[in-house]
Amino acid sequence: MVFAKPSVFVALASVLSALTAVLTYLPGLAFPSPTGGYTHVGDTVIYLSALLFGPWMGLTVGLIGPVVADLLVGYPRWFVTLAAHGLQGLIAGLGRGKRFPLQLAAMILGGLVMSFTYFAVNVFVKGLGPALASLARDVFGQTLVSVALASLLLKPLERSQPVRAAQKLLGFS
Q1: Residue 32 three-state SS
Q2: Which of 134, 65, 133, 144 is nearest to 109 (CA)?
Q3: Per residue in 150-162, pLDDT tens?
Q4: For labeling, which of 20, 25, 58, 70 is most exposed (least CB within 10 Å)?
Q5: CA dihedral in degrees (10, 108, 127, 42; nearest 10)?
Q6: What is the model's pLDDT at position 77?
Q7: What pTM does this model have?
């Protein structure tokens, strides 16, 4: 998709990525996991970015925000974050403009892809037991909480003037 205003895309992606980084980093410091990694609500912004502004915004925010947080927290396997959260945002963005049940399904599918991407790497890095514990934390403590938060915020944000103005500048009808 060619955006009507690429500079608006870059500016919006920057702000949303920064918000994702903050909502990933701060809870990550407060809630480290005993199996490595951390639990956070930064995925909420990835979902909202994707559903409000499409799969390319979801992909971009999913690539930038969590990696910045991983680097700040000192998480050593940040490279997997690129695939995990990038795909999460891209998949969730496929729900943009759809009815809420499809948006919900897109968020859950994106979250499951993220969770199982980390699981696949964690099996090799940590072993099966800790990887299963991390998977449960990623699905229940991170994905479902972030899906719930995004679900509560989505409709009010869709109706807001700033979001509608940004969508119009990006060429969405």
Answers
A1: strand
A2: 144
A3: 999 999 999 999 9
A4: 25
A5: 40
A6: 66
A7: 0.94
